[in-house]
Structures are given as C-alpha cells and as structure tokens.
Give the backbone structure.
Amino acid sequence: MNKLTSRIDKERLLLGIAAPLLAIVAALVITALVILATGKNPGPAFSDMLNYGFASDSQVYILNKATTYYLAGVSVAIGFRMNLFNIGVDGQYRLAAFFAAVLGGALTLPGWLSVLLILICAMATGAVWAAIAGVLKVTRGVSEVISTIMLNSIATAVIAYLLQPGKLAQLQQGGTVVATKPLPSASHFFNIDTGPSGELWGFIVIAALVGIAYWFVLGRTRFGYDLRTVGQSESAAAASGVSVKKMVATSMIISGAVAGLIGMPTLLNDSYQYSADFPTGIGFTGIAIALLGRNNPIGIALGALLWGFLERTTNHLEFQGYDKEILGVIQGVIVLCVVIAYEVVRRYGLKRQQQRVGAELAAQVAAAPMKKQEVA
Amino acid sequence: MRRVAKLSAACLTTAALALAATACGKTSSDDASSSSSSGGGKGGVKIGLAYDVGGRGDRSFNDSAARGADKAEKQFGGSIKELTAKTSDTEADREQRLQDLADAGYNPIVAVGYAYAPSVQKIAAKYPKTSFGIVDSVVDGKNIDSITFTEEQSSYLAGVAAALKTKKNHIGFIGGVDNPLIKKFQAGYAQGVHDTNPKVKVDVQYLSHGQDTSGFSSPDKGQQAAQGMLDNGADVIYTAAGSSGTGAIEAVNGVKGAWAIGVDSDQYNIPGMEKYKSSILTSAVKNVDVGVFDFIQSVKNGKPLSGNNVYSLAKGGVSLATSGGYLKDIQPKLDAAKQQIVDGKIKVKTTP
C-alpha cells in the first residue's frame, strides 16, 4: 500500500509539472509560427528577449511592473476563489489611486503617517466601490460581471469630472497636463537604489506581504475555508451553516480593498500624482495573471514576473524591427495555452487515475472481495 | 503533495534569482554601447521618433510629426527608427523607449506628445550628448528642444471664418477629449467667433472625457456628435478630435450648405477625404512637421535648437488652410485678423 501511494504521488508531481511545461512549449511554438508568418525569423527574437530581459536594468523594470501586476492578480484571484468575476478591479484601482493622490497632495503630516493614511484611503475607496457591486448582488441578485463593468465606466467618468483644474486637480507647467497636487517628498515610499540599473520600488515589500496574507487567510483560516467552500458549492456551504450572502459581500469588499493597492506602487514610488496618463487597464491584466497563476500566491507571482518580462522584452523587439503587436499575441497565446494545458492535463490525470483504480479494484476483487478504495 | 509542488516552485524561484544575480551589474546599455559607436560614422542623421498612442498612420498629429522626419531623412540621408506608445504605458515604458533610442546612438530623438515630458527630462539628463525634442510640452534642459504651437491662434482664425460663413448664426465645436490642449482650440475658436459676430451661438461637445481617449480615434462618435449639432441647426462645425474628425466631416457632407473645418493637417488634401472635399471649408493647420524638421536640421547643422521654440501664427507654425478656395470672399477679413494677432493687438485666450 505504501508503495502505491508513493507511485501516485510521483505521477501527480509529474502531471503538475507537465501542465505549465506544456503551456510554455505550446506558447513558444505558436509565437514562433506567428513571427514566421510576419516574415521574420523567430530565433533572433527569442535570443534578444533573453539577453535584454536579463540585463540588470530590465530586472529592475520587471520587478517594478510585477509589483503592480501581482497586486492586480491577487485582487482578481480573491474573487475567483469565491467564484466571483470581479471585472471591476480596473475601476476600483483607478478611483482608489485618484482619491489617494488627492488626499496625499493635501496632507502635511509626518511621512510615515501620511503614507499610512494614503494606503488606508486607497483600500477604503477600492472596497467601497467594490461593495456597491457586492451589495447589488446579494440584495438584488445583479450579476457582478454586469455591475462591475458599468462601475468601471462610472469610475472613468467620476475621475474625468473631478480631474479638472479648479476641482481636485491643477494645470501643470507647459499647460498640457492636468494632475492632482503632487505628494510632498516626505510621503514618498522608499526606493531601493540599485545604481545604474535604476530604482527598485520599495512597494514590492507590501506586495509580498499581501501575497503572504492571501495565502494565510485563504489556506489557513476558517474564513478562507468558508470562502473556498462557497466558491465550490454555494448550496453545500449554506447547508453547513455558512452565510453565502455575507461571504459574497465580504469577499467582494476584500477584493476591492486589495484592488485599491494596485495603483499605489505607481503613485508612491513613481509618479507621485494622478494625471491623465496614469496607467489604465491593469485590472484586466490582473485577470490574465490570476488565470495564469491558477489563483496560487506563488503562481500569481510567477505570472506577474512573466508579464513584466514580456512587456520589457517586446518593447525592445519593436526596436529590433519586429511588430509591436507581437506582445498582445504572445500574452493571449500564453493565457490560452495555460488554461487549455491545465484542463488537458487534469482530464488526462483523471482518466489515468480512474483506469488504475479500476484495474486495482478488479485485481483486488479477484483476490479478496472487500478492500478499501484508493481514490484520492 | 502540494508541499512538494511548493518546494519545487521555491527551488525554481531561487534558481531564477540566482541567474538574475549573475546578470546583475550588466545593464542593457552596456550591451548596446558597442553598436552605438559603430553606427554613427556613416554621415546622415539617425532620427529616433517616439510616437504617442496611435503612431504613424493616424492621419493627424503623429502623422504630421512623421512627415517632418521623412522630409529630413530625404534631404539629409540617414535613417529613422520609430517606436509607438501603448495605452497601458507607465513612465518606465516611455523612459525605456527613449533610452533604447539613445543607447543605439539615435540623435536627435523626437518625443511626440506631452505624455513624454517627464521621461524626456530624465533621459536627456542621462545622455547629455544626445539632442532631444518634445512636441506640445515645455521641458527645461540644455539638450532639449521644446516644440510648442499656438493652436489657439489658428483656431481664432477658424472662428472668424465660421462666423462669417454661417447663415443661421449657429455653429459647433467638437473636441476629442476635454484636456487642456483641446480646450486651447475651443477657446481660440469661440473668441474668434465672438469678436466677429457676437450673435453667433457656439455649441460645444467633447467626445470623451478624462482618461478615456477614445474620442481621438472614433469616427463614429464624431459623426454622431456632428449629426446632433446639424439637427439642432448648426451649419459650421469645427472638429479638433484626431481621426474622429473624419466622421464629423462625413456627417457635414450630408447636409447642403453646411461646412466642416478640419484640424492639424490640411484635411482638404488628405488621401481618403476626396469625397468630402466640397464640404471642407478650411483646416486649422498645426505644422508639427515644420517643428520636427527644424529641430532635426539644427542637429544636422551642429547647432541643436534648445529651449522653448513656439511655432506661432507669425512664424507659420500654425495657419488656416486655403485649399479649395472657399475662403476667397472673406480672405481680406481673415488677413486683417491674422495681422492683428501677429502684431499682438489681439491676445487669444488659451482657456475657454
């Protein structure tokens, strides 16, 4: 019996590694074909991506980008674990970053205190915005997909209305950029200077803490257990005494609070203000990264790093004369490959297991009629 | 078993970090420096262009910059390298774009669009021997040429023309996005109209707001907005909205006696607009190409421009197009207004 379990384990491990490997190989092959179809040679493209992507300044860039993407991925993943599709992460983080920037520009407190207040403001704004969708869902049964998409547009409009000279923003020198009042240098988050490679954003520490909290709360607490149960089967959760409505609203609020942090690395480490060119669309990137990372805290980190790597290197590919649209193609292909590969491997593993258990049972039936079942 | 998976993931990450550590200390510019030294000796100019969202082919702002660079390439020889912004860009992406160009020895480097202002400031300081140009913004630096335009002046003239041509004393302005740059157009236009005939009513509509910049690239939105204004009785419509303007011109073309006023390029002469020529009264031209060409030429001649170079009406940086000859009857009045602006007798507002 001991032998048997160890064999199954080995196989599961193998299958676990097979899925991402399959996805990466498939993605590479398809990307190579696409590059070939545009009449270019994929070989130099890949080697350029590797060379350029592993230069030290690229590493800093990738880590900085991944900090933002990681938070986005975690925010979306919290919803996913609950079977909630929070498409509104995009609006939540932009609105949160905007109000946090307004608050930060107005504050004249000691640095650490105002950083803390800015973070709280951002998380609260994100949570409130997400809560609207959560409350609508539990009280009126409105699908969170519909309501969050609409809330994204509303967030855009609210920011557009308030980001005007004379309202909550001001016109900057040159007369072309409208931005919120810049944060005083005391409330900048710390940067790690890496010399010629640029500055590594200190916010990466917060992102890591969020990742640990995500792992702990979902995997090691009663709340996380309830959340995952509701995600897997609402009726089963309700039967075991979990208030589904409360869980839906709470997880939406937590997802929104984490979403509120997405804009913070950019705001506190880089731009120090919210202007019309604040990055948009990261909420949607977060969906791709959560899918890529299989909602796993380490998986999401790898996904975020991969995303940063791809953006950095394809920016440079454009420079080498390849089409810049190749980035979108590679990213789309990777997400599709990951989703498909995991499903294929899962089905294959299930089939193998059923066959083996069947064979095992048949053999045992032949030897002794009653034997305990070995289904994992 | 999940523990094993986690362990292997941890091992992978450590391996990746170790790999990363070995690469540390070597930046991408170190790799590129060898190629930059070999590239410079061929004569000609190596022009680096970093476009705003849309890039070459937008029939408007970016294209105008591209024309200037193309002209310089033809005249001086050399090569052009073009990179284009994405909507999801952060500061780091814009910096990377400029740095890649600088590393590869491109000189001059032109950043098209105000979004590049902070990155130009940073990268120009890092590469003091390279000349940088920035369109539509002012950045301080010894090796930076800030190329700006007085859009409000050409818009003022467009307003004068519109006020003289309207029969219903009712005209319209369509802006792409309600940002300060486009408001300059609106301010000048409205002032020009008001100074000419205070009875004329100006309808104003923006196609998108804030961070939603779709108003610069949605001909359908332009068409709907223009149709709405026409239905309300406006008969001259000025559209400052990038490629959305083509939709507005199309709508105007469907109404007899109505006029459209184009923007940035002389839209009467743009390929693809032939069908609507009979409706294009004029265009408020912004000669980004002149600014870009001047800058490249100055670098070629060894005396790179720097500081803020304002391309005004007086210098021919902005103008009112006369293609089609529809303005012939009112030309004297336009010339008079232009003269007053050039002489400084009329101060055109930059905010509505």
